[in-house]
Specification:
Blueprint: H1 57-97, H2 107-125, H3 137-155, H4 159-174, H5 194-201, H6 205-228
Helix pairs in contact: 1-2, 1-6, 3-4, 3-5, 3-6, 4-6
C-alpha cells in the first residue's frame, strides 16, 4: 500500500473499515470488503491505540482469525449443501431416463421427452461446484466402488429389487434393525450388504455422511415407486 493515508484530507467512504496495527493513524491496512449481508461485509478492525491496555495484540489477531475460520466453515457447509442438491437433481434425471414407463410413449413423444431431458441435463452441467474432500488412494477407490453400487440401483429396471438392495445399503450405514415377532417387514430390511459395507467403511467420514443422505433420498423415491406399482 506504500502511500500514507491522511484521514483529515482524505475522509474514508461510509462503511469502510481499516486495521491500525501499530497505533499510528498514518499507517493503516484496509481489510477486504465483501458485498452482501452484514455478516459478510467487514471484519472487525484491530486498533492498537484504542485498547492497548485491555487485550494483547496477538490475542486480538487470534480472535479475528477464529472468526474467519468460522466463516470459512460456514461457506464450506453451504457449498456442500449446494453440491448435494446438484447430486439429487442429477440422480433424479438418471431415474427419469431409466423409467420403464417411457417405453409406453409413442416414438415421437419419447424423442421429445429425451431431447427435453438432455437440455435440462446440459443446463445442470453448467453448474460447477467443487468442495474438496482430502482422500488417499484407497479412499478414492472405495468411494468409486460405492458410487458404482448406487448407480446400479438407479439403472435397475426392477424398482422392488432396487428398493430391497437400497435398504441393505442403508443398513450398512446405520446398522440393521432387530427383527421383532410378528413383523411384516422383509428379510432385506434386517440385512446388511457386506460388499457395500466394506467399501463404505473405507470412505472418509464426510463421504459416508453424503452417501447416507443419497441413499435416504433414493429409498424415499423407490418406496413411492413400489407402492404405486
Amino acid at each position: 500500500w506504500g502511500g500514507k493515508l491522511d484521514t483529515d484530507t482524505h475522509p474514508e467512504a461510509p462503511g469502510i473499515e481499516r486495521m491500525d496495527i501499530d497505533g499510528q493513524a498514518d499507517q493503516v491496512i484496509p481489510l477486504p470488503y465483501l458485498p452482501g449481508p452484514t455478516e459478510w461485509q467487514l471484519m472487525p478492525r484491530i486498533d492498537e491505540a484504542s485498547s492497548a491496555g485491555e487485550v494483547k495484540l496477538i490475542d486480538r489477531f487470534i480472535k479475528l482469525v477464529d472468526e474467519l475460520d468460522n466463516r470459512v466453515e460456514k461457506l464450506r457447509k453451504d457449498a456442500i449443501t449446494l453440491q448435494e442438491k446438484k447430486d439429487y437433481l442429477s440422480m433424479s434425471m438418471d431415474l427419469l431416463r431409466n423409467n420403464d414407463l417411457l417405453s409406453n410413449l409413442e416414438e415421437c413423444e419419447r424423442e421429445e421427452i429425451t431431447c427435453y431431458m438432455q437440455r435440462v441435463g446440459s443446463r445442470l452441467a453448467t453448474v460447477e461446484l467443487n468442495v474438496k474432500t482430502v482422500r488417499n488412494g484407497a479412499q478414492e477407490e472405495c468411494l468409486h466402488q460405492v458410487n458404482v453400487l448406487i448407480d446400479s440401483l438407479i439403472s435397475s429396471p426392477d424398482a422392488m429389487i432396487s428398493r430391497q438392495r437400497c435398504q441393505m445399503f442403508l443398513n450398512a450405514c446405520e446398522g440393521a434393525p432387530e427383527a421383532s415377532p410378528g413383523t411384516s417387514r422383509t428379510p432385506c430390511d434386517f440385512t446388511i450388504d457386506k460388499k457395500f459395507e466394506s467399501s463404505l467403511l473405507g470412505c472418509t467420514l464426510d463421504d459416508q455422511k453424503t452417501i447416507k443422505k443419497r441413499l435416504n433420498a433414493l429409498i424415499s423415491y423407490l418406496n413411492k415407486q413400489t407402492i404405486s406399482d
